[in-house]
Design brief:
The structure is a homodimer.
Chain A (H helix, E strand, L loop, with lengths): L2 H12 L3 E5 L16 H13 L5 E4 L1 H5 L3 H13 L7 E6 L3 H15 L3 E4 L5 H8 L5 E7 L6 H4 L9 H11 L7 E5 L4 H10 L5 E3 L9 H8 L7 E5 L1 H4 L7 H20 L7
Parallel strand pairs in A: 1-2, 1-8, 3-4, 4-5, 5-6, 6-7, 7-8
């Protein structure tokens, strides 16, 4: 099963366009877990278990695990190995490097860590993506227009050939990088008009849409703009909004309630009857 | 001592613009080291010890360590802790992420791993660089024009305002991102004309120049084009050419001979009497 097949299967089974981002902050681990052998693992697994039937994907952000030192990466590896196999795991790594280095990253993320998909930065060009793209069963989600305020610095620059840089990235993703059918794009929820224009250019690519909740985005507008003609192929990510929905020892219940609310809001926004299930 | 001060001090002390890149490949570790408790550590430390008086910096590429799994990152941490303190360590990480994630990367690289400088990708814009830039004593080397064939895909795109994208990155590095005086640029050795135009735009920024040797670049031309008015502030990197100069158990001697040859070639290219020492 490819990443895209696995994504669509989870999305239809769970009636969900929601992705829960796993960005664990050691300072926000509930008291009840602090005595666990690996509190970060225990926290993430509890949230995964509480939400796995409500999401289309999980997205651990590797930076948060790397910030814990070498033990943090081992935690992430064990976490991915133990997560339900029927929900794809997108490792948010935003890698972008060349030749043998890109090959080393691809091996580390896909083979050692067990990612089903990764996020990639396009600045170094198509050959920097190839070592990832050649894993035809894995997803390669390329940064297009990100949700941060400074995303305009480069991404919005108008090209002499017409249109902003991010649309050229979308065009190349569609025309040049998707030979194996495993490419998607990352477009922030903060720009529904951008989402709509990227979707119009790329009717078939999965779109990962971060920026909901803690980063401040209008969920329903974003989901409507990003969904394909069947109301699918959009992965709306919420990280802190779900992880820290409750700060006490009922965090898993609170995470489930918030995930349910977001799932249903997305379902209604995109149109009941369209989003599978 | 800031990264730039440390770089200039090492460069002058050793009469060198050469940086040795540490990209260890477990398949190329000499036989004599394979029984060591940590062969990658032993190999890198032997090369460091053999070349530390010939270089202005070392540049471990974190991808090669991450490819070894969590133990590899622990190896890199120990390696940096044990390397000579008077030669700055640039961790080639090409990170680029937003907000709290960028802050987590900065903490991981600067505080936990012990990097004196890192490489960063600019695609996400100025606010994605800020969590790194605020470490005023650390170096932030931003990808501008990379050495790989596909670097033109995005970096060479002509802007409506005139000039290629990479020159806009150089301009922003100079005007917007360098408030703490800790920014540099990464420009591949394969494009001496690009090096010259970036240097003309940014007379004071340190330039990291990869692409010599295994990636095929014309060393002397690159160094001449990239050097500042004093023949300094250029960091010419060679990785595999030095690491694997010899394949046998004399690898450290071979690495030293090759580093010496490159150092002298750079010294002559930039002009004796200009490059310090």
């Amino acid at each position: 099963m490819t990443f895209l097949e696995s994504l669509l299967a989870a999305s239809r089974r769970n009636g969900s366009l929601l992705c829960v981002g796993l960005d664990p902050d050691p300072r926000r681990i509930p008291a009840a877990l602090r005595a666990a052998p690996d509190p970060i693992y225990a926290f993430c697994m509890a949230v995964v278990a509480a939400t796995a039937d409500l999401v289309c994907a999980f997205k651990p952000n590797i930076a948060f695990f790397e910030a814990l030192g070498p033990a943090g990466v081992a935690t992430l590896r064990r976490l991915i190995a133990d997560m339900p196999r029927d929900v794809p795991v997108i490792v948010d790594a935003k890698r972008g490097d060349i030749g043998s280095t890109a090959a080393a990253y691809a091996e580390a993320l896909f083979e050692r860590l067990g990612a089903d998909a990764v996020t990639l930065s396009p600045y170094l060009g198509g050959d920097s993506l190839q070592p990832f793209l050649r894993y035809a069963g894995k997803g390669c989600l390329v940064l297009c227009k990100t949700s941060n305020p400074g995303s305009g610095d480069l991404q919005d620059l108008e090209l002499a050939s017409g249109g902003p840089l991010y649309m050229e990235v979308a065009r190349r993703a569609r025309d040049d990088w998707n030979a194996n059918g495993n490419v998607g794009l990352v477009v922030g929820a903060t720009y529904p008009a951008v989402l709509a224009s990227v979707r119009a250019l790329c009717p078939d690519l999965p779109l990962l849409v971060p920026g909901v909740g803690a980063q401040g985005g209008a969920l329903a507008d974003a989901a409507r703009a990003a969904a394909d003609i069947n109301g699918e192929r959009v992965i709306v990510n919420s990280s802190r909004g779900v992880l820290y929905a409750g700060d006490g020892d009922d965090f898993a219940d609170a995470a489930r309630r918030e995930a349910l609310r977001l799932r249903d809001e997305l379902y209604v926004a995109v149109g009941a009857g369209k989003a599978g299930a």
